[in-house]
Write the structure tokens for this entry.
Amino acid sequence: MNGAGKKHTLRFDPRTELLLLVLANIVAFTQHDLWVEITWVVFLLLLIAACGCGKSAGKLAIAFGICLALQYYVFPNGSKILASSFTILVSYARKVFPCLIVGTMVLQKTPVRELMVALRKWHIPQGLIIPLSVTVRYFPALKEETGYIRDAMKLRNIHGVQKIECILVPTMISATTTAEELSAAAVTRGIENPAPKTSMIEMKFGMQDFLCLAAGAVFCVISITVG
Amino acid sequence: MIQIQDVSFEYEKEQGTLSHIALNIQQGECVVLTGESGCGKTTVTKLINGLIPHFVEGGTLSGRAIVNGMEVPKTEMYRLAEQVGSVFQNPKSQFFNIDSDSEITFGLENAGVEPKKIKERYEATVSALKIQSLLGRNIFSMSGGEKQSLAFASVYAMNPSIFVLDEPTANLDADAIDTLRQQIIQIKKEGRTVVIAEHRLYFLMDLIDRAIFIQKGKIVQIFSRDEFRNLSDEQRIRMGLRSLVHPVLELPPADPPGAQKGLSVENLSCAFDKQPVFGGLGFSAKRGEVLGIVGHNGAGKTTLTRCLCGLLKEVDGTVRLDGQALKAKQRNKASFCVMQDVNHQLFSDSVWNECELAQPDCPPERIKEILRSFDLLDFKDRHPMALSGGQKQRLAVATAILSDKDVLVFDEPTSGLDYHRMLEVSSMIHKLNGENKVIIIVSHDFEFLGRTCDKIFDMEGCSKETPCGCNWRA
């Protein structure tokens, strides 16, 4: 995550990534041509691999391949029951892939604050951005806390259903105190300041952003017209 | 700079009432507010950074508080935030971002400072506080000390003229305290005003201009630096204050491994996420004896604790109890850890049910007896979360005794405790001695360790190549 590492891989403006997510959705739900879909998926996979998510791209590619194989090889040749019960599931799973791929890139490669800056640039109200960023901030904190609580339960020999009941009290307690302390820290750093927020990160659309969005738009048009 | 004139404040629920406080703090002054827990020193800091009355709900405030010419109750929080920077006690919960760089610039971005200036402040902060090692990091991968250092940096970046620190060392070890000390020296040099509420005093003795002693919501006495330094031990203890000099540990070292009655740790190595944490650890902890374990940040104290309690498997080595080698699962049955945040380990809706949960088939007389010995019987119907910190800790220990655990490990049992509360923990542990348990305390509170332990084991310098306590084989 350091500055030096970033230069070696392709990087997009967070806005491009968000737009790409929208395009991925449109393409996924308008097209009905298998080859358009495959090219679109391959394009996105190559894209995120170039951004440094090679490992995830590989995993997703394999998963996509399995879906295709199931649908076009296993189901037609296998038993009827198998086919009729799983065809819908698999074909919908396949549809989600473009979104999944872009989503992976957003989650792995975009710092929260860049996402926030992007949303601000689009004039999304602050009242929506702050809760969103707190939520993103809160999950890892909660994960850390539940780790301790799980340890504590192991030491007390709490098992089975009791576990679910027992994790609630300490989790709630720690969640409330954490939330309160977090907000105290935030107000003493001036989060309520009405001044328009700025950012140290300069955000500009580069060549790669335009190219990528153009490619996305082309796919969109093709999928709508062909589909 | 800071004028507090005849201020009284009462919380709706919490303790920490103030009555008729009057205090003037000059520009560039460094002042420590001290006194027992709940005396109101934190309340004074909230008066300065505006959390009272803007953030704390309810409560009644009278009198005037003026900071840099601004009437605190009449000034918006974000205006105060530009002048007053606050660092809090808990390093875990004062971050708004997940990566360190965002955190440093967070305050400036809120204030709408132009990007070029933000960049300048960011760079100035990094070089003044020497925090290069913290840059570009995920906050969840940082130690408590690093987090506190980052919190300080993100406040410093906002360039406030006043710093308010509320028990900043409560969760820090000696190294991290020293880092904080260097940071305070830096802001003092720059002529900023510093107000610190603290129990730990030794690291501040040559930094402060005045010490303000608060008791039950009143300023009882204001000392100059020299007056404060010259307090006799007797006076200090009467005031309930922690040691004014860096406490030195003078305890005999832990016995070498091989104890027949108690815990014997032999050539133990542990790893976390496949990264080796320590290797070649060896010592004994006899029953009825209290062993303290110390070690610097990152020496692996937490890992050792988790390993001894069977929450983590060892990579190499053996842990024996009364001569019998125990696997992780067996250790998990035999031992208990009183965690630093005891809130994590109380699960039930009443003190009594908590005890029954610990040992479902335990006769009520036994529970009564244990609760009485921990001064908890009067509270048996209370919700555990409604207890005080000390009571919670005793309840956790009571559950361990009830479930017949033989090894009790205390993880930082005195973080953030004042002198008297520290003594209470110490005497509770001494009482446990009679139960013939193995008691291990992992802590960086030397004052407490010195009073409580019989022997000490230092994790420093143990490795696979040069195991600790290796001479026991000879």
